């Protein structure tokens, strides 16, 4: 049986752990790895897209990270209950022409008893930014920028 700890019902501590694990997984930019925290029949609404099942998650994330280059994400726990977690997040990325964006959003997560996410609802807005306005720089970029 597949399980992803921590399991519901969530406490503040375990909800924070779940959010950090999600942030780390998405920042890996590995669609296969990320897909494994979702149920096989997971249901998503991501902006205006509806995604069903792990295979569609992998295809969606593969395309996302081919378009959204140098992607860096930060998630924050907003609230939680027994098997639900709400997060707000922001991430930065650039397109193939070098235009930078900061994307802001909120997600609602629902987990099954085994700690796998069975439903994810995401609302996201993109804001164009200048490279100099980036918040999420890699340490080597900060050194080079000085």
From TrEMBL:
List the signal peptide residues.
none
Q: Where are the transmembrane segments?
A: none
Organism superkingdom: Bacteria
Query: What protein does this entry describe?
Result: SnoaL-like domain-containing protein
Species of origin reads Chitinophaga arvensicola
């Amino acid at each position: 049986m597949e399980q992803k700890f921590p399991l519901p019902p969530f406490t503040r501590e375990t909800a924070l752990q779940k959010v950090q694990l999600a942030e780390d997984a998405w920042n890996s930019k590995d669609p296969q790895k990320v897909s494994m925290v979702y149920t096989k029949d997971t249901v998503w609404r991501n902006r205006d897209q509806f995604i069903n099942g792990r295979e569609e998650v992998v295809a969606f994330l593969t395309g996302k990270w081919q378009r959204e280059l140098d992607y860096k994400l930060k998630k924050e726990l907003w609230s939680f209950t027994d098997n639900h977690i709400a997060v707000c997040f922001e991430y930065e990325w650039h397109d193939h022409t070098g235009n930078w964006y900061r994307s802001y959003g909120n997600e609602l997560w629902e987990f099954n008893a085994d700690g796998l996410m069975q439903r994810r609802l995401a609302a996201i807005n993109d804001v164009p930014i200048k490279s100099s306005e980036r918040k999420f720089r890699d340490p080597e970029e900060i050194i080079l920028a000085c």
